[in-house]
Design a protein that fits this description.
mainly beta; 1 helix; Gly_rich_dom
Length: 212
């Protein structure tokens, strides 16, 4: 949690003795008496890469979005952790990751699955302190990295793109089958080659910080 965008606020919270709770699976954050504001750090689930068939190209998936922002709370809040996009087999587009949410108050979107030509949009629509790394396209590119969080996966050759980073690393593309991203990393997976498969995207995670 040391991104150049997030580190100053995170450091100030810790210096002032903030309490925190980590969620690696869905659950409920219980509001302490008198707490009206929290900071939340959310990581969406990563997408899965596409798979080439024959001479077709294949792109890596986007990593899950990272969002860090203050939220006003009036009661307990349901935390939902986004699943990683399911592995893709045999060819075609990858699968999107699931959103990680803090009730209806904040959302980190799941990463988009890869397609067969390029990353599925050219730039992330930025939220407040929101980050989403693109998967590598089919033009000899690896996935994007997010400094302080994770590294993008490498391309396998000029037609297979690597996966985008998130709260952890994206995975490399492969001329056979790419690997799964780590649990709770939000990482996107690289493309798979020639009718094989791409790995599943990494699930998301969430942190809540507050002062008592």
């Amino acid at each position: 949690m040391s991104s150049t965008l997030i580190a100053p606020i995170y450091g100030e919270l810790m210096n002032k003795g903030a309490k925190s709770e980590e969620f690696l699976s869905s659950g409920t954050w219980t509001r302490p008496r008198g707490v009206n504001w929290v900071w939340v750090l959310l990581v969406g689930g990563g997408g899965s890469g596409s798979v080439s068939v024959g001479s077709t190209n294949a792109a890596g998936a986007h990593g899950g979005e990272i969002v860090f922002l203050p939220v006003r709370v009036t009661g307990d809040v349901t935390v939902t952790i986004g699943a990683g996009g399911a592995s893709k087999s045999g060819g075609g587009y990858g699968n999107d990751g699931g959103d990680t949410t803090f009730g209806s108050l904040a959302t980190a979107r799941g990463g988009l699955g890869g397609n067969n030509t390029s990353a599925r949009f050219s730039a992330a629509p930025w939220a407040f302190c929101g980050l989403m790394a693109k998967g590598g396209d089919s033009s000899n590119n690896g996935g994007e990295s997010i400094p302080g969080f994770g590294n993008g996966g490498a391309n396998a050759n000029s037609s297979l793109g690597g996966g985008g980073a998130s709260g952890g690393d994206g995975t490399d593309a492969s001329t056979t089958s790419s690997s799964n991203a780590a649990d709770n990393s939000g990482g996107g997976t690289g493309a798979g080659g020639n009718g094989n498969s791409s790995g599943a995207g990494g699930s998301g995670r969430a942190y809540v910080f507050w002062m008592e």
